[in-house]
Amino acid sequence: MKNFEISVLDLAPVKQDKSIHDTFQDSLSLANHTENLNYKRFWLAEHHNMESIASSATTVLIGFIANGTKTIRVGSGGIMLPNHSSLIIAEQFGTLESLFPGRIDLGVGRAPGTDGLTAQALGRNPAIINQQFPRQILELQTYFSKDNSDALVRAIPGEGLDIPLYILGSSTDSAWLAAELGLPYAFAGHFAPEQMEMAFKIYREHFQPSEQLDKPYVMACVNGVAAETSEEAHKMSTTLFQAFINIIRNDRKPFAPPVDDMDNIWSPMEKSMVLQKLKYTLIGDQAEIEEKLKDFQEKFNVDELIINSHIYDHQKRLRSYGIFREAVNSLSEA
Predict the structure, then answer these.
(1) What is the pTM (predicted TM-score) of this model?
(2) What pLDDT digit, counting tens, does each position of 171-194 carry?
(3) Cα–Cα distance measured from residue 101 to residue 108, given in angstroms and rounded to the nearest whole number
(4) End-to-end CA distance of the chain, in Å?
(5) 222, 306 contact by CB (below 8 A)
(6) Domain 1-163, what fold?
(7) Where does the Luciferase-like domain lie (predicted)?
(8) Is 214 exposed, middle or buried (0-12, 13-18, 19+ CB in 10 A)?
(9) Domain assignments of the chain as residue spans, ordered by start
(10) In the predicted structure, residue 334 carries a pLDDT above the cut 90
(11) DSSP 21-63
């Protein structure tokens, strides 16, 4: 089993008893905590029209987190590129990289990050998404290139800056694209695990080296809930289960505190659906997390594991990331 990096995905989760201001302060606290634990990067994800997630202005939050930290890489996991002009994203991330040199990542995806009606309000054209997304990535690369200095349209700031691009996906479509463009590939195993194994296979087998990357770089995002005891971790995970139930029911209310018995909340069919979506969720005490990490890595052999953690109590969320760091350290020393 090869060693792997660990990173953070934060959705800026809004909890029932907290304001959005509190949410952002918790995100900064988590970033500081994981920076001290030597996590590699801290990514924020673009979502819209959801009471439970406050990361809609993703670029603004990246600046907030980067300004409040010193060394950890900060970026998007991701920017939903067809929601935006390529030039605007190039300028925004060029600004971020100029403010925080060597610390900014630009992860991009093609999904809307919201429902159909809101996607329409964002100005997306679903008929051209599959052609638009690859074209926009190439546009970003052009805007960031020094060779674009003679063009009539330039990204200032942005031009000539080393801002690494990452392709995000929740199906096999983006695996083909990441392989073709020779870019790092991050799969959304935290909500769409069904095609992760096949996506990684496609990416690795068809990877073409690029100026940014000479060999495949595989990243998997999973949900993680760790605690001092297995019993506590499983109770804490009921916040995550309730969040997925809300998605199934199209109820976007803020995250709920943990409960003693999920059977009072979900139906058998809903339970089956949630557990399928959370197939690779890592829940337990440190010993269990170590075993689950080992099994996961033996199966997927990733270069980096990105951990998303829906834990209601902020201090317990911080501790969960600490346990994951301890578990990874233990495995690397074994």
Answers:
(1) 0.96
(2) 999 999 999 999 999 999 999 999
(3) 20
(4) 10
(5) yes
(6) TIM Barrel (3.20.20)
(7) 22-113, 153-298
(8) exposed
(9) 1-163, 221-301+313-334
(10) no
(11) HHHHHHHHHHHHHHHHTT-SEEEE----S-TTB--SSHHHHHH
